[in-house]
Fold each of these.
Amino acid sequence: MTHAHLQDPGPSLGTGPLEEGGRADFGRMRAERLARCLAEVRDEGLDALVLGDESNARYVSGARRLWLAGTRSFAPSCVLVAASGSIHLMSTWEDGVPQEIPRQNLFGAPWDPGRFVAALEGIPGLKEARRIGIDGMSPRMAALVGSVVPSAELIDATPLLVRARRVKTTDELACIETAVAVAEACLTHALDRLRPGITERGLFGIFMERLGSFGLTIPSVEASFCVTPRHATSAGPTLRRIGTDRNVNKGDLVACDAGVHYAGYEGGLARTWLCQGAVTRPATPAQQSLHRRWSTLRDALLAACRPGRPAGDVVAAYQQTGEPLPSLPVLYGLGLGMEPPFVGAGIPSDAGAITTIEAGMVLAIQGYVHEEGTGGYLGRDVVAVTGDGFRLLTRHSYGSLAEERK
């Protein structure tokens, strides 16, 4: 089993210190992201951005979301004024706010609409804006913003934000690689304890315990450890994605889907593992055949991840292998969470056709194959698209299923 390579920041410090001096230069990353956004905003002829989406606000501002519990108001949390390049944030404290954003650019999270309007009116340059980009808001919030800038035209800023975010900087890539490495290390820790009698939820708990030891507490999605069903239903092969208190038995194939956040960036992987007893034996020929089918599928998907090709080609490559499309996306972008493109079953085909794979994108590719009476195999890898192909970011092994019988 291949263990992830992680910098050792010192005893009991986890990954926390990496944001102050690890592989990524966070000040440079914030400056480059802001420059990209301002360039897109000015190209679109916008005077300001008013953002409420968590990932968009973090991309523009670099502000770190603290662990929050309880109810809080919904409102735009980040305002970018194009003329000055200044960023204004909804925040009641300075912790997690980058040092380049001055204290006077922070406004509280008011429940009183009048106070919220007053906060927006106090942002220099916003009242004079004539075209404002937004990333979605409720009718009530749109009315409040309209009361501050009644003559402004509200424009959907989602396309320009997608353009700004899709190609990753060197520092963004370093954050994603760190997240992938942490996910691999946590998965390794859980798989080392995969024995008959352990529960699916027990494996999840072991994964989360290891994640906490790295100083991280929030997975990108809840890690999933599920025994794959040996028999298909009338609707076809199924794949459970939510673990239960079910015991894992010897010979079961366990689909392991894990992801974590580091500095807001997502990284993860999926592997299918064979549960063995105290005396390990090679996988059965049927189980190894299942892995070979998935490997053939993975190679076909990787071959389609080339710069200049439509993202929809990945779906075509999947179908050409003869494997049925699963219910999950077969390709999606990674960054501050899941990002376009999204392609797969149930997703409009034109979504992939209009999105071109570009050098600098980070993509997750995944597939699922099933054999009646044997079970299923889920796998996901993360790749960084290069000028002439791709670079595989996931390095975790495939275990005994990939070992040929002697």
Amino acid sequence: MEKLGEKQWYVVNTYSGHENKVKNNLEKRIESMNMQDYIHQVLVAEEEVPVLKDGIPTGDTKVKNTYPGYVFVEMIMSDEAWYVVRNTPGVTGFVGSSGKGTKPFPVPKEQIDTVLKKAGIVNKDMYLDYVIGTEVKVLRGPLQGSSGMIESVDSEKGTVIVSATFFGRVHKIELSFQDVEKA
């Protein structure tokens, strides 16, 4: 086996609608082929969304796949790990690889952080990019789509206080860290 490198996120193409099946197949292969040191997480980016009937929320929610046809894999790129992932049933290839034996490029940190936050996965490293004065866009809730400026960050509670203007006045509002992204 090769020397262990840095773990990074990669995007794997799958048949649309087969993302969870690919995730389960890959997790079984990781276990059976003893690849836990190389392949760390397998993620199907899903989020809960309200169920609408005639445009009106019913109070129920459903799970929606945010990126149909894609599975995200956090791994240390090695020949063995690359082989295990690309030869998993249902995997059609890696995003960022032209095929013909070329290894793919990892997903840039700022892009994967957005995916992870939408899926409800937040790690302490993400907070480093969000400091007082950072302009953010609200992703969910009554202020969805509006912009504001971070006033404070509480990584222990997983919240940010954002100063946003609505109805012609500046308001400070506490939001979940998952509900904002850099503008």
Amino acid sequence: MKILVVEDEPKTGDYLKQGLTEAGFVTDLARDGWDGLEMAKANPYDLLILDVMLPGLNGWQVLEGLRRAGLDTPVLFLTARDQVEDRVKGLELGADDYLVKPFAFAELLARVRTLLRRGRGGLEPTVLKVADLELDLLRRRANRAGKKIDLTAKEFALLELLLRRQGEVLPRSLIASQVWDMNFDSDTNVIDVAVRRLRAKVDDGFEPRLIHTVRGMGYVLDDSER
């Protein structure tokens, strides 16, 4: 799942991005309201974590811009403003939750998972499946044929991408941008190594094999033999 953090305070923004990434979420960071709004409108985020006091547009204006654009992305306000009227204003504008700084990261993570579970009207699944493989996006768990699979954060994000687009051949450039947030360098084998390690965990000892290499094109996950 993909989260956008809009936070102008460098230490807080970097702390949130690192913590959410380590928790297994693909996390982007915007440093001001204008960038946050444009990124939120251009990308299908599952959740926004939004500060109120931002340069450019403030958090309330960003939220108003999102709702005017017809986007119902869940929003968690994270701010030092703890007056009741500020909370009420944010909720009336369409925010889904409100957490006051300073905060415990464990509480933030619990609220994030609750909002993601609630999702967009329950339209998006929280468990992805193919054959006997299951990926629980909220509990960050994977299993195949009832056997737990231990994944790193990057392996989890890679498997989530493959499952969300199962049956579709994904080029290395797309995998690099979506999972590693980088441009693909043809001289690096980081994608191939990561897929090989993931395949060893997901496919070794199981039938059918799910992760396939399409020579010269990329990788695909499906339950048909190739």
Amino acid sequence: MKYMLILISFLWLAPASAHSVEYQWQNAKGEQVSLASMKGKPVLLHFWASWCPPCRKEMPAMSKWVKAHPDVQVVMISLDSNQAFAQEFYDDKHIQTPLNMGDMSATARLGVRALPTTVIIGSDGEVKQRHLGDIDWGDEQTSQMVLSWL
């Protein structure tokens, strides 16, 4: 019985399956965008919120990283409850990347259990890598590691 409880706990806490990944978010124009529309290219999804201290710390450097790597398809998705909060943060930090809004429950199905989280979706549409926590986007070795995930 003890081992059964351990197994059940492990399965409950395990990341979401890498197969048949589907996710949608809302872009700055209020349009729904589907991950399926990007199939055929690797995608870096980055989940954050303006109320999250590590997110607030890493977002300016990540924005610079995105500009330095225009060949990488990056979607930064705020999980703020209100787009105005996310927009205020973008304006305050002079972040130029497009503002996208996501739904917390749909995001959890991707295995996002904490913020910030970076999820790499392969060109085949499957989750290839999931990194929970902030990333030092200004560090060259870290940058190379992230690029190797693609």
